Amino acid sequence: MNFLTYVMHLVGSGAAAYYSAAQIRDSKTRPNVLAGFQLAESGSVPFLTKLSDRAAAEGDTWLAEKLTKHAADETRHGQIFAHALKQLNKQVIDFKSLPQGTEENKSQQRRSPFFAAYFEGYTQEQLKPDVIDWGVFMGSTYILELDASKDFARMAKVLPDDDPKSRNLKLGMLSVAKDETGHAGYLYEAMMRRMSAVEVQKLVDEWRTRKVNALLAFAANILQVKEQTRSLVQDGAASESDSELIVA
Q1: pLDDT for 145-191, tens place per residue?
Q2: Contact 123, 147 (CB under 8 A)
């Protein structure tokens, strides 16, 4: 990674950290942030499960087991964020239940500027679990997991301790951050099992550069404010009897 990319990485990461911290700290924007996390974490489970099956079929039992554990972690992460929403009397909108022609459904189906830039040059077909190149999966996911571990830890720190719900969420997010660190660790090991150290570094540099470009695309989209941020949540039934997040 060249010096300019490194500097842009630092600047972009700092800006993203400030933005995400502000969003999670504000009680008005927090529900939408939590909903986004729930959708992202839970949404990755089928993908990881299919990848695990593929790895097993290819004879890589070590990777298959790691991917199975990864999928289980993401399932639990989705539950953590769903519970946090429940404590706020909110729940994720079921977009599948909406008519296909509604603006909400169309908006949900659009590819985000971030991921469009991150996976530039790859089609949706090439990124499916049954055909995705293992290097592409490992390199791209390693960067996302590594950065997510730091992002979740930073966001957890801005949550107050004097409010039970916020403190509960803080503990949950710190647990998620720890898991993400573990995911980045096994993905790096997986790359080292398949490639030379030089090849791994080249792959990591490529996806770090892509992440920088994706953050710039995300920032540009935010600054343009072409449309209001779509809501991902709706009112839900709160449960007073279920007040503790399970983070273990």
Answers
A1: 999 999 999 999 999 888 899 999 999 999 999 999 999 999 999 99
A2: no
DSSP codes, 55-118: HHHTT-HHHHHHHHHHHHHHHHHHHHHHHHHHHTTEEE--GGGS-TTSHHHHHHHSPPHHHHHH
Q: Cα dist. 242→31, 39, 56, 161, 238 in Å?
A: 18, 21, 38, 19, 9
CB 79 within 8 A of CB 26: no
* Angle at the Cα of 71 from the Cα atoms of 68 and 74, rounded to 5 degrees: 155
Q: Are 237 and 89 in contact (CB under 8 A)?
A: yes
Q: What is the CA radius of gyration of the chain?
A: 18
**Of residues 69, 208, 54, the one with CA closest to residue 133:** 54
List the alpha helices (DSSP H) in 99-196: 103-109, 113-118, 134-158, 164-194
User: Cα(236)–Cα(85) distance, rounded to whole angstroms?
Assistant: 9
